[in-house]
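Intended use. Records like the one below are meant for learning the mapping from a protein sequence to its folded structure. Do not use them to infer anything beyond what is encoded.
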Amino acid sequence: MPSGCKKQSSKKYTRRDSPSYPANECCGLTKKGNDGKKYVSQEAKNGVCKWVLVKKKTSGKKSGKKTAKSSGKKTSGKKSGKKSSGNEKTSKSSTKKSGIKTKPSQIAQGHALDLFYFLNHLTNDVGLSSHHLITKSGVATFDTLLCKLIKRIAQSAKQHDDIYDAISHVIGSTLFKYVKPVSKKISTKHLKKYLQPYLTQHGLTSSKQEKAIVQTVTYLVVDIIDLLYQEDEINKKTIMEVIQRDTQLQKCLK
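Structure written out for the chain above:
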């Protein structure tokens, strides 16, 4: 067993279905998950290992292979049509478990799609784990939290002449000192498009206000995703767990 393949006791490991072991340290090994099922740590195309549920062998395995091979040919039989649809379902589920992102249209729609693109691009811009699967509930959770944040900044801006003072008052000086340095490294094209309707709604229309809020949102989202580095996917549950254990994030996103 690799030296780093040791059981972890932190909540992010014990509360998930997969084993309480870091997948990257246990590549090629099979472990029992927290849900009692067997998992194997498999290496994805990007070189990152992930826990994948071990499927039980069934008697129809051989026939399934034959169907998969012949699925590319045109057939007129009803049976072959049914079998191939079953294989499509299996293919979709295995893709999700392997951590490969599905099409954006399946994750988020309309306005939130810009937020999805921004979250997706963070992995390239900041060098975070590219195997993360950002789910629809993850996008929706970020959307809810950011709406609350912008509303609080707008309220604070009525009491402070400078937008940066207003933001510092909301998120606290400790978090605020990291806002500018981090956001300079990241592409915010999609985030600006996503935030625009909310900024207009709350009267935050100057270029300085937009820039300051984009910087703030960028830093906070990067901070949350960075804390989720070892998670299998970014969803509502994992995001809220991070916020619950971080006092400063709680204060500015409550």
